[in-house]
Amino acid sequence: MAALPDEQRKALIQAAFEGKSSNPYSKFRVGAALLASDGTIIKGANIENASYGGTICAERTAIVKSASEGNRSFAALAVVTDVKSAISPCGLCRQVIREFCAQDMPILLVPADYPLNQDSGDAGKGSVKQTSIGELLPDSFGPEHLELPRGTI
């Protein structure tokens, strides 16, 4: 998994914090920032809906915003919440990330108190957990599997 230069890492995390918005139902704010390969940062927030099924998570919001504008090449993703520990993307977001991002692309899981204890290196409060979709969704199904030969049933 590639390491991000410090300046890009800080800008991506800051953008994820800026992406959080209020949510009328769960009160669980999530922000995401997606770093496109061209250096553009796309922000996303979880957008809730009274039917709950219409809710879209911050990670998917950022990916859909970027993909709808034609950008489908990404270098990193940061996800933040109001929780003082790193929170991982939900299963649906993991599958969408798997669809659009390289399996070894850095995913930064950022706790709410990150600025108080920046990258301390331990897994405790304030530290960023760097992972990838390959780690979060092992043995995953992706677009390349649609091209595999099929037998007859």
Automatic annotation (TrEMBL):
EC number, as in UniProt: 3.5.4.5
SUPFAM superfamilies hit by this protein: Cytidine deaminase-like
Positions of transmembrane segments: none
Catalytic activity: 2'-deoxycytidine + H2O + H(+) = 2'-deoxyuridine + NH4(+); cytidine + H2O + H(+) = uridine + NH4(+)
Keyword check for Nucleotide-binding: no
Record-level GO cellular component terms: cytosol
Coiled-coil segments on the chain, per record: none
GO biological process: nucleobase-containing small molecule metabolic process; pyrimidine-containing compound metabolic process
Class of the enzyme per the UniProt entry, highest EC level: hydrolase
Cofactor(s) demanded: Zn(2+)
UniProt xrefs under Pfam families: dCMP_cyt_deam_1
Active-site residue numbers: E59
InterPro entries: APOBEC/CMP_deaminase_Zn-bd, CMP_dCMP_dom, Cyt/Deoxycyt_deaminase, Cyt_deam_tetra, Cytidine_deaminase-like
Domain CMP/dCMP-type deaminase: 7-144
Entry's Gene Ontology molecular function annotations: cytidine deaminase activity; identical protein binding; zinc ion binding
Family the entry assigns: Belongs to the cytidine and deoxycytidylate deaminase family.
Stated role: This enzyme scavenges exogenous and endogenous cytidine and 2'-deoxycytidine for UMP synthesis.
Name of the protein described by the UniProt record: Cytidine deaminase
